[in-house]
């Protein structure tokens, strides 16, 4: 099973040297399609914009939810698979695709950036805005930094161990962390180095820095926390996504911990109304902030029974949205509501 996941989720690395590329992207104005339901295929990433709209990057388009209905923003722009979404500080939306580069949407028109314009690769798995307003793209050809005019690309020629990037963050001291399928790489502004702990390499799918400056790694072999000097392993099961909510709880999309001998774990049996299915391998897990630094933190598992779980978002109203293999779902603390075409809005 892990080998299959590795094949589905492969992308890696980081940055160091750089190449400048002037951008001459295609621009297109288009209309969007309204729908009462959301995506019906894999929903990879979810964000909420400054106006409160929910945006979902899915395999059947990028959807916007205004609280009442969904709009497939990209329905007449491209039929490619979408994987990532970001709102920058100017209010522009960036949509990363698998094969057609990245699309910039200003609310009216689209610009499409590809390798022809200097992007490192046309498969874009993650998008990140740094403290200075540069937008970073993790691609299947390396990491790209866009300053509004040019791309700076970082590849294995610059010190990365792999050109497939799955996660990018900038920590509080200005270092960039790049998650790959084989290593974590760190860029300090001068050079790229491979980050290991006691000889261990990290096969990463997600990286965040929490409010207390701890680095969390969602990896093929579990969830790891780094406090600046030591690593703590929270779970040994595959973790695909890591998210910190407003209260400081840590959420993950992961395999169930049922195979582990954690007698201290607590389980939430809620959230099953509105969902059916036999596949409960993947769970949405919440690690309580009060016990995060215990040897075995308390964890609540919400079991949708819908196979793979992807991105996670805490909306302004406190509800938890998560992507799954057949669309997007919302968890209100008691029940899980589906928004896909098959089951409709519940």
Task: Walk me through the topology.
Blueprint: H1 2-8, E1 20-22, E2 26-29, E3 33-35, E4 43-48, E5 54-58, E6 61-65, E7 70-72, E8 82-87, E9 93-97, E10 102-105, E11 109-113, E12 124-129, E13 135-139, E14 142-146, E15 150-154, E16 167-170, E17 176-179, E18 184-187, E19 192-195, E20 204-209, E21 215-219, E22 222-226, E23 231-235, E24 239-244, E25 250-255, E26 282-287, E27 299-302, E28 309-314, E29 320-324, E30 327-331, E31 336-338
Antiparallel strand pairs: 1-15, 2-11, 3-7, 4-5, 5-6, 6-7, 8-9, 9-10, 10-11, 12-13, 13-14, 14-15, 16-17, 17-18, 18-19, 20-21, 21-22, 22-23, 24-25, 25-26, 26-27, 28-29, 29-30, 30-31
The total of beta strands comes to 31
**What class do helices, strands and sheet pairing give?**
mainly beta
Distance between the termini: 32 Å
User: How much beta, percentage-wise?
Assistant: 35-45%
Please give the largest β-sheet. 5 strands, antiparallel
Shape: globular
What's the name of the CATH homologous superfamily?
YVTN repeat-like/Quinoprotein amine dehydrogenase
Radius of gyration based on Cα positions? 19 Å
Keywords:
346 residues, mainly beta, Methylamine Dehydrogenase, Chain H, five-stranded antiparallel sheet, 1 helix, globular, disordered N terminus
């Amino acid at each position: 099973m892990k080998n299959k996941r590795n094949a589905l989720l492969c992308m890696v690395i980081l940055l160091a040297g750089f190449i400048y590329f002037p951008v001459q992207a295609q621009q297109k104005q288009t209309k969007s399609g309204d729908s009462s339901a959301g995506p019906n295929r894999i929903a990879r990433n979810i964000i909420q914009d400054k106006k409160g709209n929910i945006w979902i990057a899915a395999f059947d388009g990028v959807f916007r939810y205004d609280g009442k209905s969904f709009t497939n923003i990209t329905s007449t722009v491209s039929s490619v698979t979408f994987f990532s979404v970001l709102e920058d500080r100017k209010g522009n939306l960036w949509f990363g695709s698998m094969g057609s580069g990245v699309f910039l949407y200003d609310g009216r028109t689209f610009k499409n950036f590809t390798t022809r314009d200097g992007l490192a690769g046309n498969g874009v798995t993650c998008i990140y805005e740094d403290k200075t307003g540069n937008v970073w793209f993790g691609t299947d050809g390396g990491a790209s930094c866009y300053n509004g005019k040019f791309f700076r690309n970082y590849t294995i020629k610059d010190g990365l161990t792999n050109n497939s990037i799955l996660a990018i963050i900038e920590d509080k001291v200005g270092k960039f962390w790049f998650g790959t399928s084989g290593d974590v790489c760190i860029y300090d502004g001068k050079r790229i180095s491979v980050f290991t702990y006691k000889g261990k390499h990290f096969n990463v799918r997600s990286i965040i820095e929490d409010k207390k400056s701890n680095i969390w790694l969602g990896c093929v072999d579990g969830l790891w926390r780094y406090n600046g000097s030591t690593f703590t392993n929270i779970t040994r099961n595959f973790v695909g996504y890591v998210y910190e909510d407003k209260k400081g709880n840590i959420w993950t999309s992961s395999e169930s911990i049922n195979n582990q001998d954690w007698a201290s774990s607590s389980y939430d049996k809620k959230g099953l109304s509105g969902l059916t299915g036999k596949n409960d391998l993947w769970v949405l897990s919440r690690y309580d902030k009060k016990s995060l630094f215990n040897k075995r933190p308390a964890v609540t598992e919400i079991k949708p029974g819908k196979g793979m779980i992807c991105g996670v978002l805490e909306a302004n109203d406190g509800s938890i949205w998560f992507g799954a293999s057949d669309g997007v779902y919302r968890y209100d603390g008691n029940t899980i509501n589906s928004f896909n075409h098959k089951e409709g809005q519940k």
